[in-house]
Design a protein that fits this description.
Elements (H helix, E strand, L loop, with lengths): L19 E5 H17 L3 E2 L9 H10 L4 E3 L2 H9 L4 E7 L3 H11 L3 E6 L2 H14 L3 E6 L13 H12 L3 E7 L11 H24 L6 E4 L5 H4 L7 E2 L9 H4 L9 E12 L2 E4 L14 E2 L5 E6 L4 E5 L11 E5 L3 H5 L4 E6 L2 E7 L8
Parallel strand pairs: 1-16, 2-9, 3-4, 4-5, 5-6, 6-7, 7-8, 8-9
Antiparallel strand pairs: 1-10, 10-11, 10-15, 11-14, 12-15, 13-14, 16-17
Helix pairs in contact: 3-4, 4-5
């Protein structure tokens, strides 16, 4: 059986073995509180997306702060959350196929589960399974608000699907959702405002159209970290699905500084083979590069020049030339979600010392 060494609480952060995924707990908790305070002040609910942290412990912190439930991307993530005591789950995705739907029905006996749809055949499949299982699940229609990924158009296509849901045994029509993912990381604020507002308005219009047709619409759910204060200001939106705000990452920090970076990867210098070059033990198996190379945030004059599987090559100048073998540095991933999915545990630190090693129970739960 494989053995993984886990350090003891109280270990100084600089003594952690590397690569280590480090969370500054004070910063993460402040981010949770900051979003919830903004939402409370704008009569907006928060339904944070767990695809970022993948961990019941952080979900419970969000719920304790005032979140009304938790979003998941996959059934596997929902299973982890329910096992960890989370009882209000929106799977903001389509759940298709008998194997996944059977797992969904098993969850419906333990928590209030809502799922998104954009296909009539999928609605019938869900209804049949719910009827056989004697369960009820909530269903919302995903509306394409401009991202052109999943979702149906507002108006007649949304009405048709909503009426089918309402008429289907075992299903409870809860409302609509949309995701303005095509604009959440738009650097230009005015462009982000204009396009996110347009996306949110499409969703609100779809909801109003359903109400005029006599359909109850309880949920109008949307929003991402980069648009929380835009989408969340649109009358008719009921709740926000922000995820990355809890930790932030390098990519989002180029969008705005409303939330602070709580996540970093601790790395060790393992080689100083030449002037101007240092090598760390942290490559693409320990930090993702889908949105660019990570940034060195602990020493001036160091820049990540390239990553291979197990190594990171740094260009070093000035103060960073003093780095020697065995020194620790901190790296800021450009994309937190995909970096987190590479690790089995968070090293949760407070005041420079390890508070706990927390299992990332939802890592790899892509089914």
């Amino acid at each position: 059986m494989p053995f993984e060494y886990l350090p003891l609480p109280g270990t100084p952060v600089e003594e952690l073995d590397t690569p280590a995924l480090v969370i500054d707990m004070a910063v993460a908790e402040a981010n949770i509180a900051r979003l919830q305070k903004w939402a409370n002040g704008h009569s907006m609910s928060v339904r944070p997306h767990a695809k970022t942290h993948k961990t019941p412990m952080f979900a419970h912190k969000q719920l304790a702060a005032g979140a009304i439930g938790i979003c998941c991307a996959k059934v596997g993530e929902a299973e982890v959350m329910v096992a960890g005591g989370v009882k209000e789950i929106l799977i903001a995705n389509q759940v298709v196929g008998s194997a996944k739907i059977a797992r969904l029905m098993a969850l419906a006996g333990e928590a209030n589960i809502t799922v998104a749809v954009d296909d009539a055949g999928n609605v019938r499949e869900l209804s049949q399974a719910a009827s056989v299982a004697g369960k009820e699940i909530g269903v919302i229609v995903e509306v394409d608000t401009g991202m052109h990924r999943c979702g149906v158009e507002g108006g007649a296509p949304t009405r048709k699907l909503a009426k089918l849901i309402q008429a289907s045994p075992g299903l409870r029509f809860d409302g609509v959702m949309g995701y303005e993912g095509h604009v959440v990381a738009r650097r230009d604020l005015e462009e982000r405002k204009t396009e996110a507002t347009a996306a949110a308005q499409r969703l609100v219009n779809a909801a109003e159209d359903l109400r005029k047709a006599g359909l109850p619409v309880k949920m109008v759910s949307a929003g991402g970290t980069g648009t929380y204060n835009i989408t969340g200001s649109i009358k008719g939106i009921t709740d926000l699905q922000c995820g990355s705000y809890i930790f932030m990452d390098g990519d989002y920090l180029e969008v705005f500084e409303d939330f602070a970076p709580a996540l970093s990867v601790l790395a060790t210098v393992i080689s100083r083979p030449a002037k101007g070059r240092a090598v760390t033990d942290t490559g693409i198996k320990a930090i993702s590069v889908d949105r660019g190379l990570p940034k060195v945030i602990s020493v001036e004059g160091a820049k990540v020049a390239a990553l291979s599987e197990e190594h990171g090559r740094l260009e070093v100048t000035g103060e960073a030339e003093k780095l020697k073998v065995g020194d620790k540095i901190r790296l800021l991933p450009m994309h937190g979600d995909t970096t987190i999915n590479l690790y089995s545990h968070y090293a949760c630190v407070r005041d420079g010392r390890l508070e706990a090693m927390v299992e990332i129970a939802g890592r790899g739960r892509s089914r």
